Amino acid sequence: MSKFYFHNVRIDMFKMKCSKLFCVLISLVWLAMSPHIVIAAEIKIATGSKSGVYYPVGQAVSQLLKAKDIHIGVISTAGSEQNVDMLLQGAADLAIVQSDVLYMMSQAKSDESYFKYKDPVKTLRGLAALFPEYTQILVRADSDITGILQLVDKQLYVGKVGSGTYKNATDILSSFGIEKNDYMPYAYDISEKGAVEFLLDGKLDAVFDTSGELKVNDPEFRDKLRMVSLSKEAQERIKKDHPYTSFKQVKDYEGREYGVMFSRALLIAGPEGADVEISRGTIVKLIETLIDNLEIEIQRTDKNIEIFTTGNLIARGITINLHPAAKEYYQEKGVLLNISALQLTALFLFLMLLLALLSYLGVNWKWSIWLRFWGQNRFGTGWSRTVRIWNILVGNAFSITLWVSSFVLLLAVIAILSWEDQYAFTHDVHNRFADLHLGELLTWLITFAATGFSQDLFPHSLFGKIAATVIPIIGLGGVIFVFIYSNLKRNERTDKEARGIHVPRLKDHVIICGWNDRVPALIREITTTNRWVKGRKVIVLSEHEQEKPLESFGFIPGSAFFCRGISSDYDKLKEVNLKDAYCAVIVADYHKVQRGNLRGLYTAVALRKTRQKKESRQEKEFKIIAELHYDFNEDRFRYAGVTKLIPLMRVSSSVIGHACMNPGISDLLVRILSFNAPQIALLVGAAEDKNILQAVKDKTFNEAMKRLRKQDILLLAVHRALGKDIGHAETELDFRNPSPYLLNPSAQEDSEYRISEQDDLLIIKSNMAGTSSEQAWSMELGRNLLEQPKTRVYNVANEHLLIIGRDEEIRNVVSTVKNLAQGVISISIDADEKAKITMSERSGVSYLSEELPDFSLEHLESFVCQHKSIFAEVTRAVILEVSPVDSNTEQEDVIYQDDAELSYAMVLLDLYRKLFKKNLHVVAEMRADVNLHLYHDIGIAQPIPINRLIELILARMVFRCLSRQTVVR
To answer: N vs C: which end of the chain shows fewer Cβ within 10 Å?
Structure first.
């Protein structure tokens, strides 16, 4: 039975063992398969030599965290460089490293003799600053060494290669020009404590030791050692070569002060994605333990280390990026000041302030004008809306004041936080400002600046006190003063400028001498910058009777100014700064038209003589452009030094004469001269654009035209530089041989002329972004066809014209069309309102000639009815300027200038409907653009905007003044 019993017992024991083994296997399999179970790994911390300071500090940290179930293994190393190496290789998870050494590695300033890493070490992450470290230069108490230069040819201990001590020692020595061969380094591997003992035994002359404890305060060496103090001059010399270094004054046990190099011992973690990634909870427990318990634990050792015990100190002086968990903890506790965000905000405010000033002051700067034009072309109405919003934000004095105030206040906050932070660090006190939010800081600062009430909170540092008092007071007070003063002065200055009492000192501007109804539009053309031409500022010098003549036109602010006075007054010409002007335009106003246009002639003489006093031989001739009212003064104006003349009568009559036979000519001229048209005509030098020069240089007209077409440029004419002595025909506006222009070389003898880089080119280019010249031309043609779907094609040879106008102008028009039209009836009205009516045919035969005194609309009606058979053949009526010349034109409202022409048109249209049952095609001269719709509504098929054409011609002459004297004919 006993055998049976024992046999059963064995079986039961075997079953129990099998079941236990099965359970163990199942548990292991379950653990391996479970994703939620993590086996805690030991965290390894790299420290330093066992005789140094890092190793016992690492042991103290390990003991403290062991009580919180966090296991840390302490590794003894050679020092900071090896610790970094171990972190990068994954051999350690934490390390204690000297702050200046780590900084050099992170900034890629490592020297071959110090570190093996040649690229910046950026992946390590800071956790905490543990304690200060002092680079001590130790000598025996009886040594005569008192300065760095006395270490030459001495036996020195400079630390182990790769340690922080070695780096600090070589930095100090090299700053004084002491290299390795200038002293005798101790070649054997000993600890810092061993080196001190060798020093006391006389085997060494000096020892470099970077440590958290001062050896001169160690009871073992207290009376035996002395430190070599670094003077202010020595510190500056070291810092000049090594800007990352810091210095501090320390005291020994007897109160003697020494200047030493200062750094911090930092606790850092390895790179992200290391084998053992330390959790946020572990890092938080680690930092809290360091703050609360490390100082007490260190007291249990024999090390006399000054441990950082407050959050403000433990988070300072970390020379690499903080670990995200540590940074979050410090910010949550209010330990870490987020000054970077404030600095970015200050930078943003500064940029906004700069943009506000540029927007306010740089309205007419080249880049500003280009940006406005580009945005308008690119984004259209959306850009205009954006510009309005932008002007509200930054484009006025109030917004500038707001940005200045914000920037100054934030700058004061940053200064207070920075200096108080530095003060708290150096004096080991709490920075109360770090506990406040930005809103609370701004509220405190504004309250203090306005009332002087500090709310029991005031900076301790000198610069913090200055920032808290001086900056806000100067900033706020100065801003308020500048805002009020600038507005008062600006309003006063603006009022004086509007009344012509004060004229700003301009350069490269245009002076308009005189005033007529063309001047406002001319100012707009000159001051508006677009894709091809740069706008210029304008000063109008006139005897205008209105108090503020420019105020009602709404010109671009700061673009047009008024000076009250006579344009031939030499003192007034100096006042408008003629010597620095770009050019001058003499317009035919009332005062200049009187007495044969002599006042305009006197103005030209005064302009030229005043400029000649200032011009040197090297300077280009000053450009003077003048409107010529009376042709008999042409030679006088030329002799007076006028660069370009616009004979108003000839331009007007020639354009109208051609427009009579070609209904589209006037519209074409306006569009081709306008800078806001889809295509634009430009007179440019061949050498002004390198792409154009490559296409045309040494090429014939036809070759150049084909090559320019590839650049979306249409070549119209070439102005030959070699043709200076070639003039225009004396009797026609048309260009004829001899002429410096090549218009149609295939029909000229010089069709093989080769274009040189001195020639000028008349071209048409697209004035719309992304649109070729041909596309722009087609778009405009298509628009015209849509606007005029019933356009008629006229047979010039069958046209019978009725022309009504005043003396000279009607003669010029008749001479232009008489050889083209089948017949011409002209009604010429003289100054005494006498009318001469003439009927002539293309053959030159005149078969009707009558004179009527006191001609009026009633006479016109009766005369047409009397000669119905003759007037029935009229296909087109041309109405020139028929209103009497008003000697006070500049005072009348512009809109009424075309009343007489409109009246004649209405009478003629009505007569032809009643008498001949047909709609007469009426061509009428129009001086006021505002009457365009009225012209069309009355039934005038072809308004001719003469004033507009003259304005555009004047503007073109301003933008492109040629150096040679020419006269528009």
So the answer is: N
